[in-house]
Write a structure and sequence with these properties.
By secondary structure, the chain is an alpha/beta fold. The chain is 36% helix and 21% strand. The protein has an eight-stranded parallel sheet. Strand 8, helix 7 and strand 9 form a beta-alpha-beta unit. The two termini are 12 Å apart.
């Protein structure tokens, strides 16, 4: 059981007040069971904590536990051959048209057993845990039939039972549609009924879709969103990854938690997201793997005050990535985000992208999800290329 203790001799990352660009040099944190009971100067420690165990951390940096807010961690098979195809000039659309892409993963995921999917997904989760991640989002979308979508979401829920990590699940039935069905028939006969079933079983926390020329039209995504809202489920959207379909503005009109990718995001989409408070989830590993050249409009997002999150987009085809730290470095080097923006992007803004308000910040009353690092400067996390040594991870007050 979590107990009360004090973390002392630490550097605290800048999550005390919004907009702060400083970190506390001599603060302490009182962990009170599963939550943070106090943060501040040692002289101000409330009396109730003064007899608690003290854990001195030698000047190490403490950040919130990291949050990977966009992943496709549960899947079968491999798409290494598609990587080779892209290197020889094939586009994402070419691979999809040839029956590869999502379809090859769908076939492998349908064949895989629940235990097999769990075992492979746990390996990927363990890589994230080793980097201080305490919360992940996991999408379905590689089933395109009711049985497999249910199987994927059950496995996603089990990840949180097998490991000390919080899992938020997302139904991504509108990821693609089977080759032998049209998009509208698929939505009517499979996707929307399956959404109702996974919601009834308590397997899903949000609903996503892929709005793209090789995915679903805005009108079709509107159907998905309307059905989600009737079930009381928040929405998010893969938007403007390969072209501008107006998906971000559509998502914002439904008060979406996030719009993700956004390389081709328009000014109108930015304005809509800013008005709705929709988070921009940026996925630099997919940008890198697809050798994309059009950058998401980072400065315009900054100027509009749109919160920017970062995530691995861990998936077998376009982002076989299980390092959120490398994602941070890519956010800085490829997208020009500052180290502070990168750190906020995998903590406070990532939490917001999942609809969570009890984590992602070091504040009294928040969940005691913390990461302690073997350095004192927060910039190290984006500066190092996938190697920011973790000293300790705390999840719900427990060291694990």
């Amino acid at each position: 059981m979590p107990r009360t203790y004090i973390l002392s001799d630490i550097k605290i990352a800048p999550f005390i007040s919004k907009g702060s660009d400083e970190y506390v040099g001599d603060g302490i944190i009182a962990v009170d069971g599963e939550t943070i009971g106090f943060i501040g100067d040692a002289d101000d420690l409330p009396q109730q904590y003064r007899e608690s165990e003290v854990r001195a951390l030698g000047g190490r940096l403490v950040t919130p536990g990291l949050i990977d807010c966009h992943t496709h961690l549960v899947y079968g098979g491999s798409r290494a051959r598609e990587f080779e195809m892209r290197l020889t000039g094939a586009s994402y659309e070419d691979i999809m048209t040839a029956g590869g892409g999502i379809f090859s993963t769908v076939e492998a995921t349908r064949r895989a057993s629940e235990s097999g999917l769990l075992a492979s997904a746990l390996q990927r989760v363990d890589n994230l845990i080793r980097e201080g991640v305490t919360t992940i989002e996991v999408k379905s979308g590689y089933g395109l039939d009711t049985e497999t979508e249910l199987k994927m979401l059950r496995v996603a829920r089990r990840l949180g039972e097998e490991r000390h990590i919080r899992v938020r699940t997302t139904f991504l039935g509108a990821h693609a549609y089977p080759k032998d069905m049209g998009a509208d028939d698929y939505l009517e006969q499979i996707c929307l009924p399956t959404m109702e079933e996974v919601a009834a079983e308590g397997l899903v926390d949000a609903v996503d879709g892929f709005c793209e020329t090789v995915g679903f039209t805005p009108a079709q995504i509107e159907r998905v969103f309307n059905a989600a809202e009737k079930l009381g489920l928040p929405v998010k959207l893969h938007a403007e990854q390969l072209s501008d379909q107006g998906g971000a503005a559509l998502a914002a009109s439904h008060n979406a938690l996030s719009a993700d990718h956004l390389e081709y995001l328009s000014d109108a989409g930015i304005a809509a997201m800013a008005d709705a408070g929709t988070v921009a989830v940026l996925l630099p590993a997919a940008f890198y793997a697809l050798r994309e050249t059009k950058l998401p409009p980072i400065q315009k997002l900054r100027d509009a005050g749109v919160p920017m999150a970062l995530a691995t987009d861990s998936n077998p085809g376009t982002s076989p990535m299980t390092s959120l730290l490398l994602t941070m470095n890519m956010g800085a080097t490829l997208f020009g985000m500052t180290p502070q923006e990168c750190l906020e992007g995998v903590t406070v803004h990532a939490a917001r992208a999942l609809g969570l308000n009890d984590c992602g910040q070091i504040k009294a009353g928040k969940h005691a999800d913390l990461a302690i690092w073997n350095f004192s400067d927060p910039a190290e996390m984006s500066y190092r290329i996938g190697d920011a040594p973790l000293h300790m991870r705390i999840f719900g007050g427990e060291t694990c």
